[in-house]
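Posted in: Protein Modeling Q&A

I'm a second-year student putting together a small comparison for a lab meeting, and my supervisor asked me to include a predicted structure for Small ribosomal subunit protein uS2. I've never done this before, so apologies if this is the wrong subforum. The sequence is pasted below exactly as I got it from our records. If anyone can share the structure token output, I'd also love a short note on what stands out.
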Amino acid sequence: MAQVTMRDMLEAGVHFGHQTRYWNPKMAPYIFGERNKIHIINLEKTLPLYIDAMNFIGRMAANHGTILFVGTKRAAQSTVSSEAKRCGMPYVDRRWLGGMLTNFKTVKESIGRLKKLEAMLEDGQAGINKKEMLSLQREQAKLERSLGGIKDMNGIPDVLFVIDVGYEKIAVREAVKLGIPVVAVVDTNHNPDGVDYIIAGNDDATRAIQLYLSGAADAIIDGRRSVAAAAFAKEGDPDSDLSGEKGKVDQDGKPDDSAREKQENSATMQERESPEKIESPEGKQSASSSESVVRDVPGQDMPGDDKAENSIPEE
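Accepted answer (user: helix_wrangler)
Welcome! Here is the predicted structure, written out as tokens:
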């Protein structure tokens, strides 16, 4: 995950709140002051909150959790869809349908209808006239706008990541009702109740929204990558599993000693076949042949022969 600093937040305009007359008193702990009748958010508190929220999202992604991105306001639509696609998570960027979480069974039927229409249109519309085809295309486009971001979501998400809790109050309400953790950007004019991980900051500026969403996407990618790296390291550790045989148990639940017996048998065979213990017949034959060749060379005596030739027999 890219490290976000306080300077990055300043440049993105995270510290700009709403007009003072629209403020919510429950956001007072996160307000630094006011300037030109606009509240200034205390980034010294926002930055730790942001880091905690991103760490939570990363942990949920590492545990194979599903994070649903929600941002239907115009300033957030394109960024929500692009960042959610980048990290492979579902999203809602056009309109939050009432009951999308609390009545997910009915929503899933609509998703099935959308997939069926896509399959029909891809097959070439065999046996469908032009008028019926146009009607199906319109229905498919309508469902795609509302459900296209969640058509691959098989169940209730594990986390809701919301931009602007005031604009998405229905989504937050449904998540609270189902006990789904909510990570949300809360501006000075909104109520933070129901939000588990608050990110006090500007929810209107495009650059600020980009900072929040890109950080969440990076946290998800890093969380999944850490799990994959840990699994790869575990598989590549030679001492972890003893060639896949250590730690096995038999059918009775007792430790399987076959691996140890195989190692002992292999060690015994190596000792028996060691060249220091056994000398092959080929080795003996080669040694005797080399000695005979040396003796047959003319003009060369073997050690000890000159003593026999120069000695005078005793009378």
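A couple of things worth pointing out for your meeting: Strands lie at 16-19, 31-35, 38-41, 67-70, 91-92, 159-163, 182-186, 197-200. Residues 206-236 form the longest helix (31 residues).
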